[in-house]
Design a protein that fits this description.
alpha+beta, five-stranded parallel sheet, globular, [acyl-carrier-protein] S-malonyltransferase, acyltransferase, transferase, Ac_transferase_dom_sf
C-alpha cells in the first residue's frame, strides 16, 4: 500500500520549482493558479529568495501548487492513501478528489494571507523542542502558557505562543531536551490564529466538497476522513488546532503502508517517517525535480493498486474513522438498500461509540468487517455499490 504525502510550511527552498517549469504546460498551470491565489507562483518558485518565500502569505499557496503540479505527472489512480502536513492538507484533499485543484490553491491563498495578518496582531512565535520525555515536554509547554502546535513524532514537538514565554522555555528546557527558536511569523495552530480561522471559514462555506475517493488522513486526529463536509470543517479548524502528524504516522503504520512518496519540496516528512517508522521497513522516495519522476513512478507501480483493464462495478467503500470494535447496524444485511447519511454501524471506543454512515445511495453489497472485529482508522468496513432499483 502506497501513501503520498504533501509537505507543509518550512520545507520550501529558493528556486525549487525552476526545473518543473521546463515541462510543457506547467508554467501556464502556475499562472492560472497565481490568478486564483493572488501571488505570483512562477516568480516565487523560480526567482524569489529565501526571505521572500518565507512570507506566510506567499509560502502556503506555493507549497500547495508545487505538490499538485508534481502529482499531475504521476499515476495517482494507483495511490491508496494521501496525507498532508498543515497547509499540505489542502494539497492532499485535492489529491483525494475532495477538492478541485483550483479550490485547494484558492483556499491556500486565503489561509496564507489571513494567517499572516493574524501574526501581525501580537508578537508570537514557535520553537522546536527536541528530545526529552514526551510527557515532561508537554507539561513544560503548558506550564509556560504555551501550546503544542505540532506534534511530529520522533521526539519533536513544536511549542507556540507569546515570545517572552518561548524565551523562558528556551532558558529552562525540559530535561534532556533542547529548544530551538523557529524563524516563523507567529504562533500557527494556536488560538492566536482565531481571526484567520474565521476568515477561512467564510470562504470555505462557498465550496461544495466531494467525498474523498481514497483514504485521506486528517492532521486533527490522524483519522481517515470519509465525508467532504467533515473534511472542510477539519481544514478550517486546523488553523487553530495542533497538527498531530504523530497520529497520522501511527495510522500509516496501522494501515500497513509499505511505501511513502513525498511530493516537492520533499524531505521533511520523509525524514519524520524514516525516524518514526523505521522498524516497519517502509520504502521512501522523495520527489523534488522531474529527474525523480522515474523513481516515483516505479514506486507507484510496485506499491500502488495494480491497474486492471477488466471492467469493474462502481462502488464506494465506507472506512472506519477511528480505532475500536466494529458493530454493524442491527438488521442491516448485504443486499439491503442504504441512503446517504444512513447509519450502518458504529465503532466502539473508550470515549464511546462513533457512528459510521453511508456516504452515497446504493446497495450494501458486502460487509468488509463484522461484529466485534477490531478495526484501525481508515480500515474498510463495507462496500456500497450501484444504485437501488
Amino acid at each position: 500500500m502506497l501513501a503520498v504525502l504533501s509537505p507543509g510550511q518550512g520545507s520550501q527552498k529558493p528556486g525549487f520549482l525552476a526545473s518543473w517549469l521546463e515541462l510543457p504546460g506547467t508554467e501556464a498551470r502556475l499562472r492560472w493558479w497565481s490568478a486564483l491565489s493572488g501571488v505570483d507562483l512562477v516568480h516565487l518558485g523560480t526567482a524569489a529568495d529565501a526571505e521572500e518565500i518565507k512570507d506566510t502569505a506567499r509560502t502556503q499557496p506555493l507549497l500547495v501548487a508545487a505538490a499538485l503540479l508534481a502529482a499531475e505527472r504521476l499515476p495517482m489512480h494507483d495511490v491508496s492513501v494521501v496525507a498532508g502536513h498543515s497547509v499540505g492538507e489542502l494539497g492532499a484533499a485535492a489529491l483525494a478528489g475532495a477538492l478541485s485543484a483550483e479550490a485547494a490553491v484558492t483556499l491556500a491563498g486565503v489561509r496564507g494571507r489571513e494567517m499572516a495578518a493574524a501574526c501581525a496582531l501580537e508578537p508570537t512565535g514557535m520553537s522546536a523542542v527536541l528530545g526529552g520525555d514526551a510527557a515532561e515536554v508537554l507539561a513544560a509547554i503548558e506550564a509556560h502558557g504555551l501550546y503544542p502546535a505540532n506534534r511530529n513524532g520522533a521526539g519533536q514537538v513544536v511549542a507556540a505562543g507569546a515570545l517572552d514565554a518561548l524565551a523562558k522555555l528556551g532558558a529552562e528546557p525540559p530535561a534532556k531536551a533542547r529548544v530551538i527558536a523557529l524563524q516563523v511569523a507567529g504562533a500557527f495552530h494556536t488560538p492566536y490564529m482565531a481571526p484567520a480561522e474565521q476568515a477561512l471559514a467564510a470562504v470555505a462555506a462557498g465550496i461544495t466538497p466531494a467525498d474523498p475517493t481514497r483514504i485521506l488522513l486528517s492532521n486533527l486526529d490522524g483519522n481517515a476522513v470519509a465525508h467532504g463536509r467533515d473534511l472542510l470543517t477539519r481544514l478550517v479548524r486546523q488553523v487553530t488546532a495542533p497538527v498531530r502528524w504523530d497520529l497520522c504516522m501511527r495510522t500509516l503504520a496501522d494501515l500497513g503502508v509499505t511505501a511513502v512518496l513525498e511530493l516537492p519540496p520533499a524531505g521533511t516528512l520523509a525524514g519524520l517517517v524514516k525516524r518514526e517508522l523505521k522498524a516497519n521497513g517502509i520504502e521512501i522516495v522523495t520527489l523534488n525535480t522531474p529527474d525523480d519522476l522515474p523513481a516515483a513512478r516505479d514506486l507507484v507501480a510496485r506499491h500502488g493498486t495494480a491497474p486492471s483493464h477488466e471492467p469493474s462495478p462502481q462502488f464506494r467503500v465506507v472506512v472506519a474513522g477511528t480505532a475500536g470494535l466494529f458493530h454493524p447496524a442491527e438488521g442491516l444485511a448485504e443486499g439491503d438498500t442504504v441512503s446517504t447519511g444512513q447509519t450502518i454501524g458504529h465503532v466502539s471506543t473508550r470515549q464511546g461509540p462513533v457512528e459510521v454512515a453511508a456516504h452515497g445511495d446504493g446497495l450494501l453489497t458486502e460487509w468488509l468487517a463484522h461484529h466485534d472485529d477490531p478495526v484501525a482508522p481508515g480500515q474498510p468496513l463495507a462496500r456500497i455499490g450501484g444504485h437501488p432499483a
